[in-house]
Design goal:
This protein is mainly α. The protein has helices at about 40-65, 80-95, 100-105, 125-150, 155-165, 170-195, 200-210, 215-220, 230-235, and strands at about 5-10, 15-25, 35, 70-75, 75. It has a 3-stranded antiparallel beta sheet with strand order 1-2-3, covered by helices on one side. It has a two-stranded antiparallel ribbon with strand order 4-5.
Length: about 240
């Protein structure tokens, strides 16, 4: 049997691919017109469309919230840019990333500026408390938005699990997210932090990041374009 594959653009830019069997008209029909046998399960298509629409709506809402960041980088809201970079790395590491993983990447640092480091004691315990509270804040914020756009409970639970990095490193998707977080740091934040930090502190931070990364992520990290000092710091961390 021959098949025709048709891509139909529906609401919210979602694309539904329909595979339809066809038979040719009678040989004496000079126009060679084809007619199609109905082979589409339209209720299922509508269901998938609704699911995809919720996914797209959640991404838009995450971006809207991050667009409010008063801090800018390269002329754009910092957290919006961060979310895009994290998403790019997740998809580079895992091109077939699930929707919950892609959603988690988009909201991992959502509205982070609302809980600045300065609100906590400038000590190691203060830093750890700030980081722990941030995870909860991001998970609560993402959960509220996912609920708002109508996502199911399982999707909300899974995105929040990834926000909180539960079951790391056993959870494979959590490992992908952690790899992406480390790679965003190394590509876009490492040099700026190194410029205002001593070597010992940076080497320690690099060792911790390297220890959390998979071999694939480490290989990707070594392909990045580092300055001379950053290269020396990485070499020291990998000794």
């Amino acid at each position: 049997m021959n098949w025709l594959v048709v891509a139909v653009v529906v609401a919210a830019g979602a694309v539904v691919v329909i595979k339809i069997p066809f038979t040719e008209c009678a040989a004496n029909d000079s126009r060679r017109v084809f007619y199609f046998k109905a082979a589409c399960n339209f209720p299922d298509i509508r269901k998938n469309c609704r699911v995809n629409e919720k996914f797209q709506s959640a991404l838009r809402r995450f971006d809207e919230e991050n667009s409010r960041d008063p801090n800018s980088e390269n002329g754009r809201p910092r957290e919006l840019l961060y979310a895009e970079r994290l998403t790019d790395w997740v998809l580079k590491i895992c091109p077939d990333a699930s929707e919950p993983l892609r959603l988690a990447a988009r909201c991992q640092h959502i509205c982070r500026w609302q809980s600045p480091r300065e609100n906590y004691p400038m000590t190691r315990p203060g830093y750890l408390k700030w980081r722990a509270d941030l995870k909860k804040f991001h998970a609560e914020k993402s959960g509220a938005i996912l609920c708002e756009v109508g996502c199911d409970e399982e999707t909300i639970r899974r995105v929040q699990e990834l926000n909180l990095k539960k079951n790391f490193p056993v959870d494979a998707e959590c490992r992908v997210l952690e790899d992406a977080l480390c790679l965003v740091f190394l590509e876009f934040q490492f040099a700026a932090l190194a410029a205002k930090s001593d070597d010992e502190k940076m080497v320690d931070a690099l060792k911790k990041s390297w220890g959390k990364m998979t071999e694939f992520a480490r290989a990707e990290a070594l392909k990045l374009n580092f300055g001379e000092r950053e290269q020396k710091l990485i070499a020291a961390a990998l000794k």
